[in-house]
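sorry to bug you again but im stuck and you know this stuff better than me. below you get a single protein, a line of residues and a line of whole numbers that encode the local backbone shape. mainly i need to know what kind of three dimensional shape the backbone takes. anything you notice is useful, everything is just below:

***
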Amino acid sequence: MNSVGNKIGVALIGAGRFGAKRARAIAAHGGSRLIVVADTSLERAQAVAADHACKAESDWRQAIERDDVDAVVVSTPTQMLVEISLFAIELGKHTLAEKPFGRSAEEARTLVDTARVSGIRLKAGYNHRYHPAIRRAYELFSQGVVGRPLFLRVPRGFVWGWRTSRPRRPRTGLASVVRRRV
């Protein structure tokens, strides 16, 4: 490990909304140091990097290849995750990739197998793992307060976001009268 001052040197690939959140988490952790932020938009990488006093890069390969980088956080759209993550793993960098690991089970399996053979840690980033509601549900299940779950559906998103059903159109005319039993 090429740790910088006993801290794990981290490269962040992807400086969008989730990447910026990951950058804050890396900076807040006492055992890690954000070394470089890479994004296809150099301006976006520079904006995140400026908040954390680190380098900015538009070429993700150059960011990962740095000697002071021990681990890589891949916070890019799914279609880029596998290529970037494989590159990092093959260079011996521990990798956290946003979920899903790939566009297919085969892509995910390739990542997992390559990491296993290389002795590299590969983790999936799941941004709700420590959400207060999820933690509370885990506590209740662990304590036996709630019995063995058989099925769990957890809708989330905006009230009328794409994850939920469409809003009903207001009823007018005869349908409205019948519904109100006038």
